[in-house]
Amino acid sequence: MINRVVVIVAMCLSLPPLAQAHMTDVSCDDSGRMTRMLTDVLGAERLGMGLRDPETMLEVWVTRRNSDWLIVQSYANGTSCIIAMGDHWQGSQANPA
Fold first, then answer.
1. Phi, psi of 17 (to 5 degrees)
2. CA distance 29 to 3
3. Within 13 Å and on the Cβ side, how many CA atoms surround 64?
4. Are the C-beta atoms of residues 27 and 11 closer than 8 Å to each other?
5. Distance between CA atoms of 67 and 43, rounded to whole angstroms?
6. What is the pLDDT of residues 22-71, one digit of tens each?
7. Which helix (H) or strand (E) holds 4?
8. Taking the model in full, what pTM does it have?
9. Where are the domains of the chain?
């Protein structure tokens, strides 16, 4: 958990935010860079995604090694923002019926 926080803080300090945030704990970046950071640096995997509106998609990312989770909001303009994060993710199987 500490490593994840250090990486996110370093990313926030080294890259200018591309979207205006309404919360102080939101971290935004170019969607491509955000995806690379999540997969390559944190080892996270996108477990699900869904449209919030025609211009916005929400994604749930989880790290397999320590069960940390992040919710990323991606915009049609190519910007993505981490809007929530936590630990101890517990997934469940959807019932297709």
1. -65, 135
2. 19
3. 6
4. yes
5. 11
6. 445 678 999 999 999 999 999 999 999 999 999 999 999 999 888 899 99
7. helix 2-14
8. 0.69
9. 2-86
